[in-house]
């Protein structure tokens, strides 16, 4: 706009005189009548600025709010208007607002108090009163009030009558006729159009519902509930474009409104965008956790995304609040089947059948759950009930016949399948199940006849050629089978099953190269096909072409990034190749995406154990247990993880559970014994050893454990018997040191020393034995002999912290310089060790470096939390440093305190001060 225009506008504004209250109100009334609520609101506000207590303006403001479906604000305006001036029209409008706001009780209370006496004979008020009574479930009073609303052509009264026809008389046809009469008089009546849309939706006529709702919105765009219902109807008829547009508008008007988020989620769900739908439903549930529609569809979306734990939680929550919703309840049952929990699915299906004994969907879930639990005869009974309820259903006959076969009633099963095939010659499922049944019975001739008939009837279907090929393969007609598989390939080039059949023929001929070529050809047509890739990988492994096998599996992963099989195959090889980091690289993404394949978590747990990372293995073990809590192999892996994390009690529980299924599994029982020993449950461990087979009890490892257990219990003589037997059967450094320890405990130190020395004459590089021999010499006070052994040990392992520490201790007085060299090296290798720091301090003491000795001792005390032995060493340093008073105070504390190894020496030192 130019500056001239601004001036003109300003001049006009300055010259005009204020509009009077009466003119403003008159204009507002006209605007309301024409539906221009914004203009009406502007004039009413201006009038109220001139006179805030203008009763007519307040009443008009209430009408505007009522039209905007804001009954709370309307009530406030009507009540303020009535305080200034009583008006029958305003009183009637207030009554309507109270009902619209759901405050029927307040209206009825005011009516009983006599506030509406002037309206008692007004038909429209009686209609309002009828609605209020209906809202309070006072039905006889509601009907009586409606009888007082005798008037023709009043829209409000007629809409009320339509509501009664539906809610009390269950007569939607009568309601529709009443509403149509209103719309004949006034096609833009928003209430009538909205109600008519509701009735159309009841009869699944969503096309008509859309038209009625659009008319209601055109009449009053403020009716947000109608706009929401319009989007719902548009979604139902598949008009996603219009629904999306409507949702965008609603989201601007009422952001973060649960119903809008729900509809947006429903639209995305219908479009197959389940992740986007989940996000919308989550927003709705954040605002309103009890929004049942969002809860149910979110569960379904999570099911499709494989988020079974979240879906289970949401379905459980929904069903707990809607126990009569059989569909959702059975969905929960089906979910339990997916999770491998058929007993829970069985219980759910039985619960539904208690309320509806003829529910076929519930029977289907029950039959599947029973079959999964191996209760095949019970499953047959359920399928028989389904077949009886649906005598014309081919699918029911096929399901019954198939289950009868599994249950062992092959004669009845075959009869059902034959009847199904005869009943519907076009049912390929019935034909295929019948052929499978005949093959399983060894009726190859009949199976061949049925397969040939199948092929003749469905000449353009590659599956008919495949079935014929499989049967011909069974009857050893190799040429015929090859011809059939090639026919399938002609009908469907690259057909994976046909390629598999040709490859199987090659394998039968010991032609692995031929099988490889067939699978390669299939892959050239079906690049990255998972089944073909896995089959080719097996052939390549048998051919010894490991590099090409890994290449095929890698390509399968590139083409199928979420596929489990190729990753698991490569991970298993990596574990065998002792490359645990590769296992983690291959499987971590699957685990993070919520895979439900127990193999993924088993391999990850084993990989982290192999890498010495038991803490990282723990979460995978927990997930593994969630997925397959009853599998002995799973329990064994979890037990190993618990043992590695220092939880032998938990490992014991898992191993005991595994042994229930596999009571004769020696490896599991050995692990249980290990877990018991770690908990010092020695008596129970001995009982478990005694339950092992006799030949296993003589296994050196078992004898070694048994001997150690006897030693723990103080029976060193019996310990020596078992450990000696272990050493005799399996002479090694491990069995020898255990045997020598038992002898030592019996007081046979000489025999133990001799045996260790004799072993080292033949096995001079056995560091385990030499280390024990050095320790025994040190224990006997034979320092020179110990020193000799430790010097040999340090030559073999220059970085052994224990050896370096002991050498430094032994040499601290005679060869302080060398001792310092050794202990400095040990301190560098183990800078946090208080024992190393303590030895270092005593070596520095011998070196005459008192300040250095005190500093190192202080670090040792800090790390060892005030060890009395290290404190005694500090007292010795203080004495040598000339700080006898401090030394005496420290020694008095040590002598008066709890017993420790050097307490007598501490008292002797104190006596000298």
TrEMBL record:
PROSITE patterns the UniProt entry points to: TPR
TPR repeat residue numbers: 258-291, 462-495
Alphabetized Pfam families for the sequence: TPR_16, TPR_19, TPR_2
InterPro entries in UniProt: CellSynth/LPSAsmb/PSIAsmb, PEP-CTERM_TPR_PrsT, TPR-like_helical_dom_sf, TPR_2, TPR_rpt
Presence of the UniProt keyword Repeat in the record: yes
Keyword terms: Repeat, TPR repeat
Protein name, as recorded: PEP-CTERM system TPR-repeat protein PrsT
């Amino acid at each position: 706009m130019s500056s001239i225009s601004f001036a003109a506008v300003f001049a006009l504004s300055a010259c005009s005189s204020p509009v009077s209250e009466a003119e403003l109100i008159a204009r507002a009334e006209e605007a309301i009548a024409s539906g221009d609520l914004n203009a009406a609101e502007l004039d009413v506000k201006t009038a109220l600025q001139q006179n805030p207590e203008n009763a007519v303006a307040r009443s008009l403001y209430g009408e505007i709010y009522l039209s905007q479906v804001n009954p709370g604000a309307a009530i406030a305006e009507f009540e303020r208007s009535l305080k200034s001036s009583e008006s029958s029209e305003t009183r009637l409008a207030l009554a309507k607002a109270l009902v619209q706001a759901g405050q029927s009780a307040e209206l009825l209370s005011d009516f009983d108090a006599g506030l509406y006496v002037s309206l008692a004979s007004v038909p429209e008020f009686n209609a309002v009163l009828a609605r209020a009574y209906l809202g309070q479930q006072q039905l006889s009073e509601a009907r009586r009030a409606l009888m007082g609303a005798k008037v023709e052509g009043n829209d409000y009264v007629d809409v009320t009558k339509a509501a009664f026809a539906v809610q009390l008389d269950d007569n939607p046809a009568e309601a529709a006729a009443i509403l149509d009469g209103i719309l004949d008089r006034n096609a833009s009546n928003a209430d009538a159009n909205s109600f008519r849309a509701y009735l159309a939706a009841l009869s699944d006529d969503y096309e008509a519902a859309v038209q009625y709702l659009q008319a209601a919105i055109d009449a009053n765009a403020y009716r947000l509930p109608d706009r929401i219902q319009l989007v719902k109807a548009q979604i139902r008829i598949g008009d996603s474009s219009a629904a999306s547009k409507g949702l965008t508008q609603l989201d601007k008007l009422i952001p973060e409104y649960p119903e809008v988020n729900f509809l947006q989620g429903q639209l995305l769900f219908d479009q197959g965008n389940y992740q986007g739908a989940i996000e919308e439903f989550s927003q709705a549930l954040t605002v309103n956790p009890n929004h049942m529609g969002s809860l149910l569809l979110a569960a379904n979306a999570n099911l499709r995304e494989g988020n079974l734990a979240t879906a289970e939680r949401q379905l459980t929550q929904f069903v707990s609040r809607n126990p009569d919703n059989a569909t959702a309840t059975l969905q929960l049952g089906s979910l339990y089947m997916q999770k491998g929990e058929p007993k829970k699915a069985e219980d759910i299906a039985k619960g539904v059948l208690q309320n509806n004994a003829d529910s076929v969907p519930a029977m289907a879930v029950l039959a599947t759950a029973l079959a999964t639990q191996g209760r095949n005869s019970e499953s047959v009974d359920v399928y028989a009930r389904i077949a009886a309820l649906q005598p014309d259903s081919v699918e029911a006959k096929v399901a019954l016949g198939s289950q009868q076969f599994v249950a062992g009633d092959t004669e009845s099963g075959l009869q059902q399948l034959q009847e199904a095939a005869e009943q519907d010659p076009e049912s390929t499922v019935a034909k295929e199940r019948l052929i499978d049944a005949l093959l399983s019975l060894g009726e190859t001739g009949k199976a061949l006849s049925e397969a040939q008939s199948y092929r003749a009837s469905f000449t353009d279907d590659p599956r008919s050629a495949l079935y014929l090929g499989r049967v011909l393969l069974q009857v050893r007609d190799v040429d015929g089978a090859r011809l059939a598989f090639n026919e399938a390939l002609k009908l469907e080039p690259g057909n994976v099953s046909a390629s598999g059949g040709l490859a199987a023929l090659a394998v039968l001929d010991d032609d692995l190269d031929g099988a490889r070529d067939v699978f390669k050809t299939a892959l050239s047509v079906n690049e990255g096909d998972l089944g073909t890739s896995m089959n080719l990988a097996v052939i390549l492994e048998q051919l010894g072409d490991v590099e090409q096998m890994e290449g095929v599996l890698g390509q399968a992963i590139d083409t199928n990034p979420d596929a489990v099989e190729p990753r698991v195959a490569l991970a298993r090889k990596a574990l065998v190749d002792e490359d645990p980091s590769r296992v983690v690289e291959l499987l971590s993404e699957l685990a993070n995406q919520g895979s439900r394949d127990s193999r993924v978590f088993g391999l990850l747990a084993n990989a982290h154990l192999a890498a010495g990372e038991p803490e990282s293995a723990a979460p995978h073990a927990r997930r593994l247990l969630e997925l397959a809590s009853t599998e002995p192999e799973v329990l064994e892996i979890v037990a190993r993880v618990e043992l590695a994390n220092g939880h032998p009690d938990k490992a014991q529980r898992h191993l005991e559970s595994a042994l229930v299924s596999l009571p004769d599994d020696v490896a599991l029982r050995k692990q249980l014994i290990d877990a018991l020993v770690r908990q010092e449950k020695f008596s129970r461990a001995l009982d478990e050893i005694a339950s092992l087979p006799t030949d296993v009890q003589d296994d050196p490892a078992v004898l070694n454990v048994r001997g150690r257990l006897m030693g723990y219990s103080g029976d060193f003589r019996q310990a020596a018997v078992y450990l000696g037997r272990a050493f005799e059967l399996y002479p090694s450094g491990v069995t020898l040191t255990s045997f020598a320890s038992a002898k030592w405990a019996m007081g046979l130190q000489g025999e133990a020393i001799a045996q260790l020395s004799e072993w080292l004459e033949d096995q001079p590089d056995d560091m385990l034995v030499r280390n024990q021999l050095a320790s025994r010499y040190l224990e006997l006070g034979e320092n020179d002999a110990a020193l000799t052994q430790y010097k040999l040990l340090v030559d073999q392992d220059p970085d052994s912290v224990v050896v370096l520490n002991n050498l430094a201790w032994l040499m601290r007085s005679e060869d302080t310089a060398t001792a310092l060299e050794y202990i400095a090296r040990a301190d560098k290798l183990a800078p946090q060790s208080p024992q190393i720091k303590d030895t270092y301090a005593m070596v520095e003491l011998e070196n005459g470096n008192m300040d250095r000795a005190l500093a190192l001792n202080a670090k040792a005390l800090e790390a060892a939390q005030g060890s009395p032995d290290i404190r005694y060493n500090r007292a010795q340093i203080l004495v040598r440093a000339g700080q006898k008073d401090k030394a005496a105070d420290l020694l008095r504390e040590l002598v008066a305190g709890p017993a420790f190894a050097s307490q007598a020496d501490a008292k002797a030192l104190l006596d000298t001060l």
